[in-house]
Amino acid sequence: MIKVVHIGIGPLGQKVVKYARERKGIEIVGAVDLDPQKIGQDLGEFCGLDSLNVPIMESLDDVLNEKNPDVAVVTTLSSLERIESQLKELGAAGLDIVSTCEELSYPWETQPEVAGRINETCKENNVTCLGTGVNPGFLMDYLPSVLSSVCQNVEKVRVSRVQDASSRRIPFQKKIGAGLTDGQFKEKEQNGSLRHVGLPESVYMIAKAMNWELDNVEETLQPVYAKEHIGSGYTDIGKNNPSGVEQIGRGFIDGEEKVTLHFRAAVGEEKSFDKVEIEGTPSFSSTINGGVNGDIATSAITVNAIASVTKAHSGLKTMLDVPVPSCFSEV
Amino acid sequence: MIKVVHIGIGPLGQKVVKYARERKGIEIVGAVDLDPQKIGQDLGEFCGLDSLNVPIMESLDDVLNEKNPDVAVVTTLSSLERIESQLKELGAAGLDIVSTCEELSYPWETQPEVAGRINETCKENNVTCLGTGVNPGFLMDYLPSVLSSVCQNVEKVRVSRVQDASSRRIPFQKKIGAGLTDGQFKEKEQNGSLRHVGLPESVYMIAKAMNWELDNVEETLQPVYAKEHIGSGYTDIGKNNPSGVEQIGRGFIDGEEKVTLHFRAAVGEEKSFDKVEIEGTPSFSSTINGGVNGDIATSAITVNAIASVTKAHSGLKTMLDVPVPSCFSEV
Question: Which is the most buried residue in A157, A167, A192, B239, by most CB within 10 A?
Fold first, then answer.
């Protein structure tokens, strides 16, 4: 049995708890959240499950003193800078860590100093820290890297994740800007609350897998505009109003575009798919028609990675370094 | 620089040498083959390249005494039993090992005793031994395992590798029975020279990834018959004559078919593709239209895995355990 403590019991954290609960071989021994309204509540009941006899605590110390967790699952923040002290505290306490923090998925180029400090703490305490999720962490970085394993040579990697958001949760539809006016979209874009986080990290992870030294990484973001009135989302979207977002991440060597990551999520998008195209020896493309449901997949890979971090070398690791998570029915 | 010795300079071994030669970060320091006609020849020239100043030697000792290789690439045999002493000799000499031996890809269920002995030798000498290739080793076992990482639950895995062999090498077309009479096909089937080796190993690797304990694994083999005259292969194939082979591997728990691996290679096959279907939460399928060219891919993944074994834990490992090989342009 792997003993797990959950740090952060927001919507994603709750889903991860539910999924972890369903697995044999994982024992949930603790939960931590700063929200006074959650503290003291039973974790299971709070997540809509049967009681787990695990109270949500305010501080990690409370859990460490009573239980002896092996792994911490951290679903608190997207910003690596803001999560650093949390991760170091967990590492110093001797816990392996799996986190959905997008910027942790491959921080070695974007924030090398923070990455170095987390790595040092983990090595000193002989534990592993991993950032994962469906994206970043799988579809647009790990999977293309895996697929390149059968190539003698790779000239270029192009990944497309295109999603019709009509059937996704309302918060997701809002997050991608569907139903906003152009002005509201721009405002949200500027304060950074709209973007999919992790595209540069994915570009760099692919480059690492190929051993490419990129000299330039770019990211663009623009609204997707409804071509006609759309009624399939959480709210009506008028013609020429934002129905979602399109982001493109690019990595260059000597002006040549080696990595292109195309992320597009919009209400009313005609076709959902995840596609990896490799140009090389051999060239081929791999397509998941309908795409992978992000809500399920991020929670699932987070739980699956719990076993991987217990088996990996110590330090701050990425998906490229750890054993295949895979979907284990029990550990 | 990773120093590599190549064991076995047959057609596959020659291609692996060519690919290894093209990579920065790999230095080919030795070659071993038992064939008296090859011994003493320059490895590069024998493989159709420029001279490598590496003579093909008769015994490993000759290489070990002069050079100090880090990794052995073994492309000699498909039978684990027959390759055991070779692998143990290499492990005892302190070399990490990558081999295309199909039965080595996941031998823990099919030949646990041999696997245990190889594992022991590797652990004693702090080296890693890995069996890989495009299939087994990637398309029908590793890739579906990787894809399952985004699943909370997997009910069933189905993998199809369907290939039109028209454009493949003549030896491959012959190997799958294209152009044989029914009687010749049966004869080759009975002496075991026709089958694709590794299907049960792939079934077991998937089961391991899911942590399923299979109670029964079956394998069937039958000819594919030409529906009409086929002129696209290395030889004319008359209507109703064998144009190739179809093998199906199945894994069961309590009578329920959990894993289905469908391998079909025939001259004149309408469509080539590699497809993974996962039934679970979520269900999805991933398709490579046109399929992955096996000749290129097996040699490429063998070279790519050279870096992986140098970074893995010691022992007999499988693709599930090692860092993602990926296509590195230099180590």
Answer: A157
Least CB-CB distance to B148: which of A143, A322, A326?
Answer: A326
Q: Which CATH number is A2-133+296-317's, of 3.40.50.720, 3.40.50.2300, 3.40.710.10, 3.20.20.70?
A: 3.40.50.720
Which of A146, A209, A329 has its CB closest to that of B212? A329
The residue-averaged pLDDT of A171-193 equals 92
d(CA A126, CA A258): 36
Q: In Å, how far from its chain's centre is CA A31?
A: 20
Separation of CA B144 from chain center? 16
* Identical topology for domains B2-133+296-317 and B142-291: no
User: Which residues of chain B, if any, have pLDDT below 70?
Assistant: 331
Q: What pTM was computed for the model?
A: 0.97
Q: Smallest Cβ distance to B146: which of A150, A324, A328?
A: A324
Domains of chain B, by residue range, sit at 2-133+296-317, 142-291
Please check whether the domain covering A142-291 is classified as CATH 3.30.360: yes
What's the maximum distance between 2 C-alpha atoms anywhere in chain A? 59
Confidence of residue A156 (pLDDT cuts 50, 70, 90): very high
Buried-exposed string A45-65: b where 16+ CB fall within 10 A, e elsewhere: ebbeeeebebbbbeebeebbe
For range A235-240, the mean pLDDT: 94
Residue B289 CA to residue A210 CA, distance in Å, equals: 23
Q: Could B327 and A297 be called an inter-chain contact, meaning their C-beta atoms sit closer than 8 Å?
A: no
Please report the sign of the dihedral spanned by the C-alpha atoms of residue B163, residue B167, residue B170, residue B171: negative
Residue to test with chain B: of A150, A254, A287, A296, most B Cβ within 10 A: A150
Angle at B202 between CA B197 and CA B207, to 5 degrees: 155
**Are B253 and B213 contacting, i.e. CB atoms less than 8 angstroms apart?**
yes
The answer to whether B127 touches A301, Cβ cutoff 8 Å, is: no
Interacting residues of A204 by C-beta distance below 8 A, sequence separation 6+: A106, A108, A109, A110, A214, A217, A251
Q: Look-up: residue for tokens 């490992």?
A: B317
d(CA A308, CA A110): 24
- Distance, in angstroms, between B73 CA and closest chain A CA? 16
Please list every residue in chain B whose beta carbon sits closer than 8 Å to the beta carbon of residue A275: none
Residue A331 has pLDDT above 70, yes or no: no
Nearest to B132 by CA among B300, B1, B250, B328: B300
- Selection from B166, B174, B136 nearest residue B263 by Cα: B136
Burial class (CB in 10 A: 0-12, 13-18, 19+), B40: exposed
DSSP string for B126-153: T-EEEE--STTTTTTTHHHHHHGGG-SE
Side by side, which strands form the sheet with B71-74? Answer: B56-57, B26-32, B2-7, B71-74, B96-99, B128-131, B315-317
CB B230 within 8 A of CB B237: yes
Largest CA distance in chain B: 59
- Span A98-141, pLDDT tens digits: 999 999 999 999 999 999 999 999 999 999 999 999 999 999 99
The region, left, alpha or beta by phi > 0 then psi within -120 to 50, assigned to residue A8 is left
- Angstroms from A106 CA to nearest CA on chain B: 15
- What ipTM was assigned to the predicted interfaces of this complex? 0.97
Q: Are the Cβ atoms of A134 and B145 closer than 8 angstroms?
A: no
